[in-house]
Amino acid sequence: MAKPATVNNARRDFYERIGSLSMAPLWESLHQLVPPQPAPKYQPASWSYDAVRPFLMESGTLITAKEAVRRVLILENPAMPGSACITPTLYAGLQLILPGEVAPSHRHTQSALRFIVEGEGAYTAVDGERTIMHEGDFVITPTWTWHDHGNDSSRPMVWLDGLDIPLVAMFNAGFADNGESDEQAVTTPQGTSDARYASGLLPVDWKPSRQTSPIFNYPYARTREALHRLVKVGPPDACHGYKLRYVNPANGGAPIATMGTFMQLLPEGFASAPYRCTDGTVFSVVEGQGESRVGDKTFRWKKRDHFVVPSWATVVHQATDESVLFSFSDRPVQERLDLWREDRGGR
Ligand code: 1HN
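Above: inputs. Below: predicted complex with 1-hydroxynaphthalene-2-carboxylic acid.
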């Protein structure tokens, strides 16, 4: 209904006067503040590895891992330029470490996941223990732990870094520290965390000291076997194919408190039912090829490609070959806050 000019003028004048007291009228913004459904200000996007890899390798000629501290090309959401965010709560990047290089030791309150995209044989060290990484491994760097990386292999290594940087920034809870030397002393034999915590058993008197999983590396060999065993015992889920979540054996929750991680197998020829959920999700293609329709965009993908699905965007996956997709999101945070929702069969 049109309002008389005098009313509009009186209101504008009122807004200006209360503005000088750092106040504002809720009724002008109520609908945006409490939208009827998620209205993300970021968009679906994809990064083909064929397009990205030459730039990653070129970055290796421009700066060393030591000088860069971390030689990473950020995967930034095209609708959030300059933010270093792939979603409003998550950071993602592709990190390159060349043979003989070391990425020096530091620690920060932001948690990190590594998902290995190309190569094998480099290590990451966390609080004095090293793990050798292979394609498809999911490796954890818990909050506030010392970590450095090194490549003793003869080939470049590339992995996807996922961090909760925007979430930590929102809380203004970020702290960081540099190590005294580039490489931490190895104080714990390789394989220790795997031996103690990774067999569905836990040392009898062990008590967790934090919410983060005690498992350091969830190797792809085991994840892949788990998926293929699932295929043998039942039909795929209509929306997800065969989808597993990584788990912290100490509490049944996500391995990292702020980031959920998932692996799913889509059988050859599988077409998923439309699905949407409130956790914006980053995907890394591990095996196979296919395409995903995300909102009004369609991304063709194959091994090592990446794409992001925003909150509440409807996704439909189609697998040409048997395919395996890794993904991560802020789902554990939303679940803790009783916010997470899904719509199986969303439009
Ligand atoms: C970091 O420490 C790593 O440890 C990777 O490999 C990416 C992005 C921002 C801040 C710290 C790493 C990062 C990071």
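The chain has a mean pLDDT of 97.
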